[in-house]
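Let us practice reading a record.
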Amino acid sequence: MAVTAWWYAKAFLAFANKEIDILDDSIKVGLTTVTYVPNQDTHDYYNDITNELATANGYTAAGQALANDVYTTTLNVATYDADNTVWTSSGAGFTARIAFTYDSTPGTAATDPLLWWMDFGQDETASGGGTFTLNYNASGIATVTSTNATGFP
C-alpha cells in the first residue's frame, strides 16, 4: 500500500493567525470513506470534511486525539510527532480510505483548522475485534523544512 500525505495549504495561515497551538490544543485524526475528495488549496476547517465515518463499530465521529505529541527542531527541520493512532473495531468493523488531522480546540466545525491528510491508496478495513492503526513515519508525523526565503532584495 502506498500511503501519501499532504498539508492543507491553509494550515500555515491558521498557524500565522494563532488559530493553532500545536502542543496545547487537542489535535485529532479522523477517517473518511473514499468519496471524500480533499482540496489542498481550499479546505481550511473541519466543516469541509465530507463522508467521515459515522460513530459505529469502534470509530467515533470527529476522530481521536493524538497522544504524547511533541514538537522538535533540528537542522532547519521542524517535526511534529505523536503516538500511532489505534482504533479497536467491533461488530461489523469499518472501512476507511483517508485520514485527516485537525485542531479541535476552537470548538466548532467552522473554526477547527485542518492540518494535513493521508490517502491510504486503497480502502483499508478493520474487521470486528481487529485494530485499525495509523503507523506514523519514524521521522515524525509532519515536517517542515526551512529554506532560504525568496522575494527579498
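A brief commentary: The chain has a mean pLDDT of 94.
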